[in-house]
Every structure is written in structure tokens, then in C-alpha cells.
Amino acid sequence: MNLEPVIGLEVHAELLTDSKIFCACSAKFGGPPNTNVCPICLGMPGVLPVLNRRVVEFAIRAGLATQCGIAPRSRFARKNYFYPDLPKGYQISMYELPICIGGHLGVLVDGETKRIGLTRIHMEEDTGKNIHDAHGDASLVDFNRSGVPLLEIVSEPDMRSVAEAGAYLRTLRSILQYLEICDGNMEEGSFRCDANVSVRPAGSTTLGTKVEIKNMNSFRAVEKAIAYELRRQASALEHGERLVQETRLWDAEREETRSMRSKEHAHDYRYFPEPDLMPLVVDGAWVDGVRAALPELPGPRRERFVREYQLSTYDADVLTQRKDVADYFEAGVATGAGAKEMANWTMTELLRIVRDEKLDRALVIRDWPVTPTQLARLVKLVERGAINRNTAKALLPKLRGTTADPEELVAAEGLAQVSDRSALEAAVADVIARHPAQVAEFRAGKERVLGFLVGQLMKATGGKANPQLAQDLLRTALRGG
Amino acid sequence: MAITRDEVRRVAALARLRLTAEDEERLTTDLANILDAFARLSAIDTSAVPPTAHVEQDRSAFRDDVVANPPATESLLVNAPARDGRFFRVPKIIE
Amino acid sequence: MSALHELSVREAADRVRRRDVSAVDLARAALARIAAVDTQFGAFLTLNEVEAIATAEAIDRRVAAGQDPGPLAGVPVGVKDIICTAGLRTTAASRILEHFVPPYDATVTKRLRAAGAVIVGKLNCDEFAMGSSTENSGLGVTRNPWDLARVPGGSSGGSGVAVAAGECHAALGTDTGGSVRLPAAFCGVVGLKPTYGRVSRFGVIAYASSLDQVGPLGRDVADVAVVLEAIAGHDPLDTTASPRPVPSYLGALDGKVKGLRLGLPREYFVEGMQPEVEAAVRKAIDQLEALGASVEPVSLPHTEYAIATYYLIATAEASSNLARYDGIRYGLRAPGGALGEMYEATRAAGFGAEVKRRIMLGTYALSAGYYDAYYLKAQQVRTLIRMDFQKVFETCDALVTPVSPTTAFQLGEKTADPVTMYLSDIFTISVNLAGLPALALPCGFDRAGLPIGLQVIGRPFDEETVLRVGHAYEQATEWHARRPKV
User: Fold this and answer.
1) Which residue from A457, C132, C241, C464 has the highest number of Cβ atoms inside 10 Å of its Cβ?
2) Which residues of C are catalytic?
3) Residue-wise pLDDT tens digits, A87-101
4) Contacts of C243 in chain B (CB under 8 A)
């Protein structure tokens, strides 16, 4: 059987507004239980929702950034079900008339761009959180998260591989971060993903039995879960088994999906238009205003980087994943650093620190280890041979937290690369004299030993020797003797 | 318009209402009578009629994105039937 | 000189402001009256004695300091127990909220307080406002002061009784299908359902969100106008509340009904009406003609579908609004059991039969497979009903009808068959579906001495015309001065 995967993803993104969607409680994560709550988000008798305008603005931003149509009239709707973390016994969401309809994303997979369709985007409120109590015989409910605004972003079932699914998620997250509406943190739950997975014979246009997968708490988990599920479905079909349309949970420990304990009834949410909220009217002027304020988005920015800076698509992709990193790179280039070098240093040294120190947890990094100007200057020093790469790397920690100019630091500490032949020749001779065994090995044909000798020369010159020149001089000297 | 006992049970489950056998009996009759009375609605031609979205004219109403609520005090928790510190306590939720 | 508890709202507030009478005396008089008579009627579920006196004292101090506490200064009022009052038990007349004490006021409660009113207690009603006789209260029986064997009407029965019996000078009720107007008619007092959106619903325990409105009850039209003015207006906590400015409703009571065009919808004068009711209403119409209004027959052709339309929409919304009563954050919780059992047992124990019936009907109307045939259909018919009214208001300034086909019926008379009970609302219900303002006021008594109510219906946000017509009629007659023998 030649089966093709059919994958759709449903993302819930927590929005970075100050207050909740329907009340004036703080939407900030954390805090002692049941402190960011009020009668409205606790669903107390007689309370009413009032819509936070900024949530609508964020939804419009997301819709425009993904080429959706923005509905001039849309409507909130009640999704009715019982669960302890749902205080009103219904969630205020949107159903028949969502705010954004029909967009798409361009997703880069293996160097090719594929278009993945979006069905819709709508706004809704988040629920509270349940945790098990210490003794395990009760559950505890915290409503701090109840009423935090969410965007639900539903893709078309256009993805045909795990790689495409992963790329879609990363692209979507990147866009939301560029728009500064969501910090995209799967581990903390501000960016959640459910997957709809089915398989069908390659070339078929009908859809197979769809399975929904939940409980994936990282990008890796999404990829693993989809991969597992595709294998499971293919295997089942190969064995002539019927697939059941169901919801399955990803078990991160066992690395498998398992069927949810079957609920007594399929959900009948009894959607109806929310009578406590007026129909939402979004006029052209509002949409135009939001559109005018959109930043350059990741896709177009990546393409521009390739064109303007002659970067590879891969490098441009890495640099444009985050808007602050892309801004950093361009700021550096603007002060005169070469694009290629600046790109390398940003992607390797800078991003390593950013990841190691989890600076990327912030939606927008403001406290860089070194400023773009500092890094750019460092890069320029290397570009013109004033220092070598190792020196430059060693300088980075020294520049941190200072406003020091790398050039001055180099001068002050006498770190300038030594590229003067005569200055090095004495050191070369010295190294040869001290390591006769290795010299003999080299002359006997063991090339690799040269590295050791170069290393010794670097040590002897306090790391300042121009490594290329050092190597050349040593080779010449060794051959000569 | 008959409504079966099974349907009454299904609806009761959706509404999280536990019905006694007597309740079920009574509700099956009551609902059937009420629905009978409503059957005449189906005869009306509403093909060109929009459902009432809101009685008043279209007008959107919003609040600004401002945190105005202070951290919640005891007064919001004090009506809780069961608590554990600041948490609301419920029988164990089984996934 | 009338006893203190018999003063009108305006007179009482005036006297308090003039320091002619103290707010404390007014409060004491009301509480004394309640203590003397309420065991017969059962209008009140909770009394607010200590806070009422304290509030009254504060008002007296403000007056003494030369301040004006507001248009309801020192006036004892009652509040239907479906409206939240901070620190004072609010039950919706249900066992499921029997011990609930809200930490917040409804907006209308806040506004009463800001106007200087003194809340003396919470009034009985049908459970969650579902009913037409107050017989569905889960916490007590309320009797009609004109005949203790009869119902006071509902769902705001306690409000009608308290005003009629002089237990407070005015009361707040809510009206979803007639629940202010019917008790007003059955108890011989004045009650107004404002235009949907005229008064904030924040803090009003929801029954049917697109139909509920808070309405004042009082002993005459002017009192009702004063209270309406105090509570009406935009509320940032309720997006369905209109931002339209609140006019002076008292100022609209200028008697200028000459030339007003009054419509009589033929569908509201039907077979099966109690003949005395029809006679009294027709006489009232004659009286209005004598005052210079012109009268013409009109038609509201979709009237016959109103009850079905109402009950589908209201119960659907109610089934959702009442889902929050689950025993987790407040209210009754049935002991023991796993989570699912807790939900079911709590709601079974906490809700009465009528509430359960309506939740079931509403859940059914919304459930998969039935949404189009029931809920959606009802919302479409609702549009037709609204359009009926729009059409007649092209040629009429107001409509005049009876409030109910009968006067107050006996306790227990209609409880056997829910459909029979629902038919009591036949003249009031369309008004809620169309969101219009409507006033109920006394226009006579039947042979048994029971009050008969006249209804005046107006255009959206035209409470002024409705009150003007009602007031002109009232001032030309004596009905509003009659009190039940207590």
C-alpha cells in the first residue's frame, strides 16, 4: 500500500494582552492560585463578559499576517460542556462566524516552499487549570488562567509529512512572535497544538479516518506523535484493521498514542450565538490601521535576506526565525560588518549564548550579551585580520555587560593578531627546537602533527598569532629543515 | 411530537441532571406536550428571514486592555463548598 | 396624614431631604410593617434590618450636613432575590443558592444605593425567575394580599406583594416574559418592563440573556418613573446595555396624550379572556380617548407563535446560563461521590421541577439535530414578531392591551400542566421578544375584588410615551389609590 499522510494542525495561542479577554483581571502567567480572578472569570451568578478590544486587534494582526479574510461581522458563540476548569459550564468561543477565514502560510521544507492553507482563526477564552491533590483522591482547580485570551488557528489538512507539520508549527510560531501577540512557548503552554492525522492511498482525494492527537507539549513531541500515529495507522490498515475516529493522547514517557478512556457521549456542544455580546463589527478603517502597522514578516524577510545579503536560504531562515535576531543581524550589518561574517557570528556565537542562557524565553530579547554594534565591530576586526577568530571568541565574555569598544579592548590588552613574519619566525624556530619528536613525525609523513605544533605556536604567542600564517611558516620551516 | 425515554435520558445526561424514574416519566410527557405546542412553528415560512441576532441595532462595545482588578481576596473564595487553601477542591478528575 | 409606609417614593424622598422625616424613621416604619404583615404574605426571603438602619443613619447624617443623598433619599425598597446585593444573601429563590452571599452588587443595586435608597430586604420569586405565579420558588410561598388563597403573579411575586402591602415604597423585579407586569397586574400596582438594554443586567442572575430586564414596581406611575431614572443607563460591565442617554422620565409625565395614536392589537382581545378583564380594559381605552388620544385597531399577526418562540429561546439560553451551578465555586454541593455523580446529584437536589423542565427543554432545543428546527427557527420567528411591531408603530405611538387573560388565579390551580401556566404570559411575552418597553397599571377590579391590569406598550427606548399614557390614565382614575385590606 502506498499511503500518504494527511495532517491538519489546530493551534491555540495565548495572547499577550495585559488583561483577560472578558474581564479586567491580569492575564499574566503564574501567581498564587485564584488570585488573578474576579466574579466574571469565576462565572459567578449574574456576571457578564465585556470584550477586550486588544484581543480583536491581535486577531486581525494574525489574520492579515496569514492572508486571511477579516470578517466585517463575526459572532461569539457558547460552547457548552461540563468540566471543573470551565466556570460557566460553557466556553465563549466562535463558531459559525469566525473573525478570520481562509488564509495560508508559506512553509520552508528541504529548501522548498510549500503553501499550507488555513481554514480559520477565531478568539476564545482559556479555561482554568486542574491539578491532582497530594493525596490523589481529589483535584484542585485554579482559575488564574480562566479567561486568558486565546486565538485558535486551524489549518487545512494540507500537510503531507512530519517535516511539513514541524515546519508549519515553527513558521506559525515565528509569525506570532513577530507580531508580538504570543510568545510561542509550548513547554509553558502559551502555544498548544492538537493534530488531526489520517492516511489514504496516494493519489486519493477522499479523506481517511481522522484521529485527533492531544497532549503534545513540545515541538519534538508533535513530530514524534505524528510519526508514531502515521506508523500505527499504516500498520493497522496493512493488517486489514478498521481505524476508529477518536481522540488519542500522546504519552511522552511511553512514546505512543493511546485512546482516551471513551467518554460516555460524543461531545454535543450545543453551540449558539452568545447573547451577552453584541455581534462584532470590524470596519475597513480598523483593518487598514492594523495592516499599516504590521512588521515585515518572516517569510518575506528571509527572502530579502537571501537577495540583499547573498545568504543561503538556510542561513537566512535561521536568522529570521526570530524578529529580534533578524533586527540584530541587520543592525550589525548597518554599522559596516560584512553580511556573511555577521551572519556566522550571530548564528553561532550569539545564538549559542542566547539558547544556553534561555534568553529566548523572552518574546523580544532586549538585553543582549553584546550589542549589535559591539559584535559588528568585533566582526570587522576579524574581517580585516586585526585579530584572529579565537581572540575574537575570547573577547566576547569580556565585552559582556560593558559598553566597551572591541577595538579599544584589543589595543588595551595588546591582543592584536600577530601577522608579522619576522615576529613569528623566532617563535617558529623555538617550537621546532622544543618538540623534536613531533617534528620527526611530521617529516616522516604524519600530517596531523602539524595541528599540535600550530597549537604550541599559538600558546607561545598568547593566542595572537595569525593562525594561517603560523601554519604556513611552520610548514615551510619543517620542510626546510 | 413524541420524545422517547432514551432521548430524555440523553438530554438529562447532557444537562448533568439526575432523574428519578418518576422524573423521567413526567418529563417525557411534559416535553412531548410542550413540543407538540411548538410544532406549529415549523409551518411558518422563514426562508427569507434572518434570525434575531440582537434586539438593538448593531453596535460593538469593548473594554480597553487595562488591568483594573486587584488580586482576589478571600471574599471570592468564601462561598466555595470545598477548598484546599486557595484552590477549589473537587472529586478527582479522571482523564 | 398617611402612615410613613404609605408615602409615595417622591414624597418620602422629598421629606427626608427637607428633614421633615428621618430616613431612620422611614426604615423602621417599613421594617415594622414587614414584621406585622409578612407572615401572611411571605414576600420577603431575607431581611436586611441592621444594614438598612445603618444606611438610613448615614443618609440622615448626609442630609444634616447639607448634602443631597439623591432622588431616592432614605426610601425603603425591596429587591427581587434574583438581583445580587453585596454581603446580603441572594438565592434566586433556589435551594442551589440557598446560602449564597455575593461579594458584589448588581449595577442596579449600586445605583439604588447611589440614589440614596435603603434596601430593606430580598423578595421571593419563582426559582431563577421561571414562572408566572411565584409558586416555583424553592424557598417559600408568597400569597396575594388581595386574596391569600391566590397567587401574586410571577416571577416577581414578592416585589408585587411588598409594594401592594406597603412593606416598601418601591421594589425591583425582573421581566423576561412578563414577570414584572403580571405581578403588578395581579397585585394592583404599577410595574414597568424597560426596553431591552435600557437597564444594566450586570449582577442580575441570568435566566434568558436576550430577554431579561430589570423593572421597577411602585404604587403609582410617577414613582416607577423616578426609580427607572435612577437605575437606567449605560454600564461598562454590560455590553448589551445601551449607551443612549437617560431622559427625565418624571419630566415626561405631562399629561399630553391629546393626539397620541393608540393601537389595539386584535390578537390581544381573544376568546377565553375573563369578561371583566376585557370590560375593564375597554373602559380604560374609552377613558384614554376621552383624554384626547385616538384609538385604532391593529394586527400583530404572529402573536399566536409568541409563546412557542419565547419558550424555545428562553429555555435554550437558560439551559446554558444555569450550567454554572455545579457545586464547585459556590452554592449547594451534594455530598460524596465521583465528579460526575457530584454534578448530577447537586443539580438534582438544588433545582426545582420547573427549572429542570426548562433546562431539559432548552438543552433539547439546542442539541445536535434539533438546533435548526427549534432554536434557529424560533429566532427567525422572533424576527417576524419584531417586524409585526415595527409595522404597527409606523402608525401608532403606543399599544394598549390587557396584561393577562384573567385576574389572579388560585394557588395550585395551574401547576398540574405547565402549558396552562405558560398561557398566562400570552399578552406579555411578545413584548420581551421584541425588546419593547411596557407598563402595567391597575384599571379596575373584578367581582371578587381582584385587580385588573392594563398594559401600555411603546417603541424601543420610548419609555416616555408609555409612562405618559399610563400616568394620564392613572391621574384620571382612582384605581391606584386602592389598597388591599391587610
Assistant:
1) C132
2) 80, 155, 179
3) 999 999 999 999 999
4) 59, 61
